[in-house]
Automatic annotation (TrEMBL):
<comment type="similarity">
    <text>Belongs to the OsmC/Ohr family.</text>
</comment>
<dbReference type="InterPro" id="IPR015946">
    <property type="entry name" value="KH_dom-like_a/b"/>
</dbReference>
<dbReference type="InterPro" id="IPR003718">
    <property type="entry name" value="OsmC/Ohr_fam"/>
</dbReference>
<dbReference type="Pfam" id="PF02566">
    <property type="entry name" value="OsmC"/>
</dbReference>
<protein>
    <submittedName>
        <fullName>Organic hydroperoxide resistance protein</fullName>
    </submittedName>
</protein>
<dbReference type="InterPro" id="IPR036102">
    <property type="entry name" value="OsmC/Ohrsf"/>
</dbReference>
<dbReference type="InterPro" id="IPR019953">
    <property type="entry name" value="OHR"/>
</dbReference>
<dbReference type="GO" id="GO:0006979">
    <property type="term" value="P:response to oxidative stress"/>
</dbReference>
Length: 137
């Protein structure tokens, strides 16, 4: 495998902390979401993960659409990242990717969505590790 790019982000303070990328593009204060005892109005790890996965996923969907001759340029994906309690001291993530591909039948959209999920690097990283549902709407 040939490494093409490395992102470097320094995190301090955990869920109530701060992250900053080595290039300074990301420089964010983090807080737990209100539902986990934190505050509204701040970024949190699940929001960042959802945004990163969604962007990467749409890149994979674009490749699949190009391969299959389907215009997916207007496609969107709503990524839902759940923070779930498994036991008193154990937590796990779950995900739903709601994929919208205008102008094509739902069954064709689902096939494209599933193919993009097979190829997306974030999807590959989570495969077999968390519960993921791909839903074409």
């Amino acid at each position: 495998m040939k490494k093409l790019y490395t992102a470097i982000v320094t995190a301090k303070g955990g869920r109530d902390g701060h992250i900053k990328s080595s290039d300074g593009i990301i420089d964010l204060e983090l807080k737990k979401p209100k539902e986990l005892g934190g505050e509204d109005g701040y970024a949190n790890p699940e929001l960042l993960f959802a945004g990163a996965w969604g962007s990467c996923y749409l890149g994979a969907l674009g490749s699949v659409g190009k391969r299959d001759g389907v215009d997916v340029s207007e496609a969107t994906v709503d990524v839902h990242i759940g923070f779930n309690q498994e036991s008193e001291t154990s937590y796990a993530l779950s995900a739903e990717l709601h994929v919208h591909v205008p102008g094509i039948p739902a069954d064709q959209a689902q096939k494209l969505a599933d193919a993009a999920h097979r190829g997306c690097p974030y999807s590959k990283a989570t495969r077999g590790n968390i519960d993921v549902k791909i839903i074409a709407e």
